[in-house]
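Comment thread on ticket #2218

A.B. wrote:
> Attaching the input chain for the structure job we discussed in standup.
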Amino acid sequence: MEKLFVYISGLLFGLGVSIGGMANPAKVQNFFDVAGVWDPSLAFVMGGALLVSAPGYWLVFKRGRPVFGSAFNVPTNRKLDARLIGGSAVFGVGWGIAGFCPGASIPVLSTLNPDVLIFTAALIGGILIAKGAMKITAARRDAMQAA
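C.D. wrote:
> Ran it. Output below, let me know if you need it in another format.
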C-alpha cells in the first residue's frame, strides 16, 4: 500500500509540474528574465503550491507521526552557512540557465527530450562530484584535527 501512495504522489507531482508549466524551459527562463520578456505566471504556481502545502504540513504534523512510519525525519540544522547559501546560489543559477528544476526534470525524462537527458546526466554528474569533494574535504579536516 505504501508503494502505491508513493507512485500516486509522484504522478500528482509530475502532473502539477507539467500543468504549471515548470517542465517548459522557455517558461522558466522567461520567469527569471526580469529585464526582458518577463513571465510572472510561475510566481502564481509557486504561490499556489505554498497555499496548498502550508496547511497540508500543519495537518500532517498535527497527527504526530507519518502514516507509513514511526516518526517524521525533519532536519534539525537551522544555521545559514556558506555551504547552504553557495549551494542555493548554484541551484538558482543552474535553474535559470537550463530552465529545468532538478525535481521537474524527472517527470520530463519520459519525453526523451535530449535537452532533459543532458541536463539530468549533468545533474547526476554534479551530485557525484559534490559528494566526492565533500569526502575529500572531510578527510582533510579529520587529518588536520588528528595532527
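A.B. wrote:
> Thanks. Noting for the ticket: Residues 2-146 form one domain.
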